[in-house]
Amino acid sequence: MINKVNKGLKGKKIPMTQRQLMSVWCREGWSNADIQRGLIEKVGEDEAASLRLVQNVTKAIKDNRVPWNRLETGGYDAGFILEVLADVNEKTNGKKTLFTQEEADWVAWVCKAAPDLPPYGVWMIAQLYMNETRVTNPQFDQLDLFIGTRCWESLDSIKEYADARMTIDPDGNIEGRIPQSNLMVEVASMIRHIVYEEEGDKEVAELEVLAASGDHTAKFALALFESVEDDFDDDPQGYQYTIRDEDLNQARANEELRNELFGGDNEKRDADEKI
Hints:
Layout: H1 16-27, H2 32-43, H3 51-63, H4 75-91, H5 101-113, H6 119-132, H7 141-149, H8 155-164, H9 183-196, H10 200-212, H11 216-234, H12 245-262, H13 266-274
């Protein structure tokens, strides 16, 4: 039952992942009851936060809503903010139609800190920063490192980012799954799973299904994955032929030999090569 007080979290601190999900879902228009259902589906009824805890978290977010003053934002920054809003509106099926002042400020900041991050990724990172500013002991380290390492620029970088952070959760692996302690690591590990699996296309298809079902970490992971794939396809360096040093040296030796044989007579050399 939704109104049941869960014994699993009674008297305990709300886990970071659940706290982050509450914030994300609240800002994207979910009701308190829907948020708790989502947590139960995510972590199970015994570990999910109670409806009362959900209400307390979402109330703090809603009480701090101040309308975005568009005229106080430069036109250049406003363009980025509105571009992100349009993408978020699409990803939330029209539920998210405007930003608060706090949301607009953080979206603009992330756009500048990570200018090539996909729009929905900007929104997710901005939300996670906002979430940390509301807790007594904020933990910005994973967010700062994610932006600082620019790990979304390649699949290898995302894999390395995830690999380096898989040990931060004290719980062990469950059925071979990678342990998670926050949404950033979970998103990176989703892409990591695709890279390591032999049936990568199947993993991508499953990620697309999860994203379509409304899973926010899957939406973020899919946006990052598609961005990396697009960059790879558009990279003119990706398929250039590299001339080896030994091939170059051999070509020079051949040219010197031709010059010795024909004494710089280009017409005679060209005629001889045609024969």
